[in-house]
Amino acid sequence: MNDLSNYRKSYEKSELLETNIPEDPINLFNRWFHEVEDFGGSGEVNAMTVSTIGLDGFPKSRVVLLKKFSEEGFIFYTNYNSEKGKAIEANPNICLSFFWQEMERQVIIKGIAQKTSEIISDNYFDSRPDGSKLGAIVSHQSEVIPSRTFLEENLKKLETEFEGKAIPRPENWGGYIVTPLQVEFWQGRPNRLHDRIRYTSQSDFSWKIERLSS
C-alpha cells in the first residue's frame, strides 16, 4: 500500500473575504480566471472537470476546455453522441470544477446544461483548424474501435475527401451552455482553515452568499 498521509502543504497565497467579493459569482470567476492567467502558472487555465451521472447510474468526471463564459453561463463543446453527451441528454444536472493549483484555488459550479444554438456551434466550429474539424468528424467519441490505425486511416480518407473544400460541422457535434445554480469558491488558507464562499441563485435572479466551514 502506498501511504500518502504525509503529503501536506501549507496554503498561504491569498484570502477570500466577504468584504472583497462582488454580488455576482460570474464577476468573481472572471477576476480569479484572469488572475490565474496573469500569474502564468497554469498551462491551460480554461481546463475544467465536467461531472455527469452516466446511464449506468455512476458519476463520471473528465477534463474538457471551457470556451466561453458570461452571465448566461459556461460553454464547452463535444460530440453529442459521446458518453457525456448521452449522460447530459438523460440528466442535464452537471457539475463543473476548476482547480488552479498555482493560486491555491478551486471553483465548483452546479448547473443545468443545454445545447447551444446551432449558430453558436457553427461559429465555433468554423474557427477551428481543419485538423480539429476533421478530428470531430472522424471520431465517434466513446465508441469502441479496433485500433489507433483505424482512426488514422479514416482521417487520411477525410483529408483527401475535403482537400480544398469547406468542412461542415457534424450535426452530432456542438456546444453546451451550463446555467449556474450554485457556485462555490475555495481559497486555500493556513492550518486547513480554508475560505469557502458559496453563491446560490435565487428566484429573483439575485445571489445568496454564504460562508462555509472549511
Automatic annotation (TrEMBL):
Cofactor note text: Binds 1 FMN per subunit.
Pathway info: Cofactor metabolism; pyridoxal 5'-phosphate salvage; pyridoxal 5'-phosphate from pyridoxine 5'-phosphate: step 1/1; Cofactor metabolism; pyridoxal 5'-phosphate salvage; pyridoxal 5'-phosphate from pyridoxamine 5'-phosphate: step 1/1
Positions with a binding annotation for substrate: 67, 124, 128, 132, 192-194
Cofactor(s) annotated in UniProt: FMN
Domain Pyridoxine 5'-phosphate oxidase dimerisation C-terminal: 173-213
Keywords: Flavoprotein, FMN, Oxidoreductase, Pyridoxine biosynthesis
Coiled coil: none
EC number in record: 1.4.3.5
List of residues binding FMN: 62-67, 77-78, 84, 106, 141-142, 186, 196
InterPro entries documented for this protein: Pyridox_Oxase, Pyridox_Oxase_CS, Pyridox_Oxase_N, Pyridoxamine_oxidase_dimer_C, Split_barrel_FMN-bd
Catalytically driven reaction(s): pyridoxine 5'-phosphate + O2 = pyridoxal 5'-phosphate + H2O2; pyridoxamine 5'-phosphate + O2 + H2O = pyridoxal 5'-phosphate + H2O2 + NH4(+)
Pyridoxamine 5'-phosphate oxidase N-terminal domain mapped to chain residues: 44-157
GO molecular function: pyridoxamine phosphate oxidase activity
Gene3D superfamilies: Electron Transport, Fmn-binding Protein, Chain A
SUPFAM superfamilies listed in its UniProt record: FMN-binding split barrel (SSF50475)
Role description: Catalyzes the oxidation of either pyridoxine 5'-phosphate (PNP) or pyridoxamine 5'-phosphate (PMP) into pyridoxal 5'-phosphate (PLP).
NCBIfam families with a match to the protein in the record: pdxH, PRK05679.1
This protein's name: Pyridoxine/pyridoxamine 5'-phosphate oxidase
The organism of origin for this protein: Flavobacterium tagetis
Gene name of this polypeptide: pdxH
